[in-house]
Design goal:
The protein is α+β, with helices and mostly antiparallel strands and 385 residues long. It has 13 helices and 16 strands. Strands 1, 2, 3, 4, 5, 6, 7 and 16 form an eight-stranded mixed sheet that branches. Strands 8, 9, 10, 11, 12, 13, 14 and 15 form an eight-stranded mixed sheet that branches. The chain is globular and about 65 Å long.
Length: 385
Amino acid sequence: MNPPKTTQVLHPSGRLYEAFRAFSRSHPEACWFQTDAFFRLAMEWPEAEPVLMLAVREEGLQDPGLRGSGLRNFGQRGTGVDSADMVAGSLLGVILREPHPAKTLLKAFAGPYRKLTTRTLVYGGPLLAEGTRLQREMTLKVLLRALQDEARSRSLFTQLRNFHDLSDYKPLFRDAGFEWHDHLNQLVDTSSEEALWKGLSESRRRQVQKSLDNGAEVVHDPSPAQVDDLYAILQELYTKKVRKPLPSRAFFHALNGMPDDQAITIVVTHQKKVIGGIVCPVLPGKVMYEWYVCGLDRAYKDRGIHPSVLATWAALEYAAGNGIPEFDFMGMGTPDEAYGVRTFKERFGGRMVNHGRYSTVNRKLLYTVAELGYNLVTLGSRRNG
C-alpha cells in the first residue's frame, strides 16, 4: 500500500484548493481553523504565513495555483471522480512572527528578535479521510513530515492545538518527535437560547442583566474606529497581564471585514465609548469560537457594568440565535495549574474536555532564550509606551 502524496497549496485557486475547500468543510471533525476561511485570513495576516499541506491519493499532483493546469484528470469532468474524494487528508498551520514593537529597547535587533518569536501553530489538528487505521496513520505521517519539512528550520517550535480527540495517535506523534501535553477546553451547547441562559451561573445572569440595565450596549457591526478602540484594550491587556503575543491591528480589521458566516466582531459600549468586545470565527451550522475577548472590567465594576461578561454572553446569544449549535472557548489551561480565565469561563456553563496539545521544539538553543527575549521586549514596551 503506497502512502498518499503530499503537496503544499500556496494559492486560494486551482483544483487542489477547491478539493481542500470541499473536503475540510464537509469533514465530520471540521473546524474553522482547518478551512479555506482561515487560509484566506492568514494571507491577510501581516505576521502570518499559511502552511497548507494536502495529501492526495493520485500520483504526481502539484498545485500550480492556476485552475486546470497540470492536474492530470484530478477530479475533472467526465472522470466520475470528485475532487474531494481524492483527498486523503489536510493540515493547515501558520508560521507566526510576533510584530516588532515600534518603541522598544531592542529596536535595533529586529532580525534576532524575529527569530526568537517565530513559531508554527496548527489550530484544530489534521483532518483525515475515512479509511482503514493503516491508511489514516500513513496519511498522518506524511502530513506531519511535510509540515515539519517546511517549519523545522523556520520556527522555534511547532504546536498542534487539538480541537478533537487525537489521543489514539499518540505513538505516531511521538515517533514524529511530538510530545503530548494536557490542555483543557470548554464547549457550550448553544442549540437553545433558553437552555443557554439557564446554564449560566446565577452571578453571570445577574452581571449580564445589570450591565444592560446600567447603560452598556452591544454592537454587532462595529466600525473600523471601534475596532481600533477594541484593539487598544486588548493591547493593554496582553502587554501588562497576559504577556503573550498579540497580532497587529491589521489582523483584527481583516477579521472584522469577513462575512458574518465566517467571523464576527462584537463590541460593548457605554455612552458611545468602547469598553470591551469579543472576536469569534464561525463555522456555519457547527461551531463558533472565542478567539479574543477583553473588557475594562475593573474600571466599570463600580458602575455595575461587566464588559467581558456581556461580550461573552452576546457571542453565546448570537450562536444560539443563528443556528450554531456549539460554542468553543478555545482553551482553559492545564489541569494542574490554577487559571483565572478558567474560572471566568466555567460560569457560562458547558462541558470540559481535554483534547490536549502536541508540541515539538525545532531549534532548541534559540528556544531556551526565547522566553527571556519576549520578557525583555515587554519590559522595553512598558518603559517606552
